[in-house]
Design brief:
- By secondary structure, the protein is α/β, with parallel strands linked by helices.
- It is built from 14 helices and 16 strands.
- The protein has a 6-stranded parallel beta sheet, with helices on one face.
- The longest helix is centred in the first third of the chain and has 30 residues.
- The N and C termini lie far apart (63 Å).
- Bound molecules: iron/sulfur/oxygen hybrid cluster.
- Iron/sulfur/oxygen hybrid cluster (FSO) binds next to helix 12.
């Protein structure tokens, strides 16, 4: 039987959905459809943060109402107005600020405010479980249930910031961090004979060789992988117990995470003096969702090339491109400051606003440049949050999402002075000029 795909109401002569990326028979670029995609990605990202806040008992009816309106707007036949879809993306950005605040509050009320913490890489002797994803509630429950069993718990990718929370770092068997950003899972999970727990998005379909020791929880489902409903991780623990012990093999790198707003603001006066004395020339926020495609190593080169009188704030999994670099400090202020997960972008925003106030300037007048890896749904909504509060001149890379056509790029560049990354040497020169 013939199937009716999503009918395109824009040209009404061809069957296309909102994911249309080709010219319709109308001959026009489907910018409205692409802006709907942009909105869908943004609200997907926001929903993920809201999900994790709700897991910890924090909800907000205003955010719920916005999500309802935004999803309804993405009907193929309800909104044909590009300008209003841009406004809705900005509204999504504002609402995402509220959502990130809610999640930040949920994390801090539940686990305490993060504190700078050194995190060992490599393995400790004994059986282990690797936890990947963003779900702090899941790792907390697993840590409780594995206490005293001799099993070591390792973080992967966006779970690294868990080490900074007092309520999580108190578990001595939260052993260390393995691997880098989300896309190294297949290699990493095959390498270590441990149980694996995936707690959020950015879980990859597993290889045959480890799928029997992998588990999912929360919203994650993977083919052939056992799912845990709720937080009873007995099957994960039993699996870990059935696997061989790992040998002690300390990694060469020690990572540092857990810089909270309070920690940075306690240094604000010192930072101000260092800026006024010319000892700190510029701040960079380099982060976002790391990409296996495009020029991801741009960010490694970029951070390596930065002058020694600059400071890098970072967050999300994009930091694994450079968080193993020894950047040292400027009179006690670390040159690499890891603020946490992607949702901790709210912490970066609050720090930037507090510094702007301290210097008596607007955020755009601060010696601060943002360079973001902008690919995934969470990074998409965070960009709209930054645009919604008026931040201009952000650099984006290493590739653009598929829906960004020339019209959308023009809106971003004309209205928000968005720039695309190029050559790191030239970019740094321009940013410092
Ligand atoms: Fe990365 Fe994934 Fe968290 Fe993103 S692990 S890529 S959409 O989740 O935001 O930093």
């Amino acid at each position: 039987m013939e199937r009716l795909e999503m009918f395109c109401y824009q040209c009404s002569q061809t069957a296309r959905g909102t994911g249309c990326t080709v010219k319709g028979v109308c001959g026009k670029e489907p910018t409205v459809a692409r802006l709907q995609d942009n909105l869908i990605y943004a609200i997907k990202g926001m929903s993920a943060y809201l999900y994790h806040a709700r897991e910890l008992g924090y909800t907000d009816t205003e955010i719920d109402a916005f999500l309802e309106k935004a999803f309804y707007t993405t009907f193929t036949n309800v909104n044909f107005d590009a300008e209003s879809l841009v406004q809705l993306a900005l509204e999504a950005g504002k609402m995402n600020l509220k959502t990130m605040e809610l999640l930040n509050k949920a994390h801090i009320k539940t686990y305490g405010e993060p504190e700078p913490t050194k995190v060992q890489t490599g393995t400790a002797k004994g059986r282990g479980i690797i936890v990947t994803g963003h779900g702090l509630k899941a790792i907390e429950e697993l840590l409780k249930q594995t206490e005293g069993t001799g099993i070591n718990v390792y973080t992967h990718s966006e779970m690294l910031p868990a080490h900074g929370y007092p309520g999580l770092k108190k578990y001595k068997h939260l052993s260390g961090n393995l691997g880098k950003a989300w896309f190294d899972q297949k290699k990493l999970f095959a390498e270590y004979p441990v149980a694996i727990l995936a707690t959020s998005n950015c879980a990859l379909i597993p290889k045959e060789e480890y799928k029997d020791r992998m588990f999912t929880t929360g919203p994650v489902r993977l083919p052939g992988v056992r799912h845990i409903d709720g937080y009873d991780f007995t099957p994960v623990i039993e699996k870990a117990k059935s696997l061989p012990e790992l040998e002690e093999k300390t990694g060469d790198i020690v990572l540092t995470t857990g810089f909270s707003k309070s920690v940075i603001l306690s240094l604000a006066e010192k930072i101000k003096k260092l800026v006024e004395n010319g000892k700190i020339k510029h701040f960079f926020l380099v982060g976002g969702c790391d990409s296996p495609v495009g020029r991801g190593n741009y960010y490694t080169e970029f951070v390596k090339l930065l002058p020694k009188d600059t400071v890098v704030l970072t967050l999300a999994c994009g930091k694994f491109r450079f968080n193993d670099l020894e950047l040292g400090d400027i009179e006690g202020i670390p040159r690499l400051i890891d603020l946490g997960q992607c949702n901790d972008a709210i912490v970066a925003i609050e720090i930037a606003s507090a510094l702007a106030e301290l210097f008596g300037v607007g955020v755009n007048e601060l010696p601060l440049t943002l360079s973001l890896s902008w690919m995934e749904q969470k990074a998409v909504v965070i960009l709209w949050s930054l645009l919604a509060i008026g931040i201009k001149g952000i650099y984006l890379g290493p590739i653009l999402p598929a829906w960004v056509n020339d019209d959308i790029l023009k809106v971003l560049t004309d209205n928000y002075d968005i720039k695309l990354i190029g050559n790191p040497v030239e970019d740094i020169k321009a940013m410092l000029a």
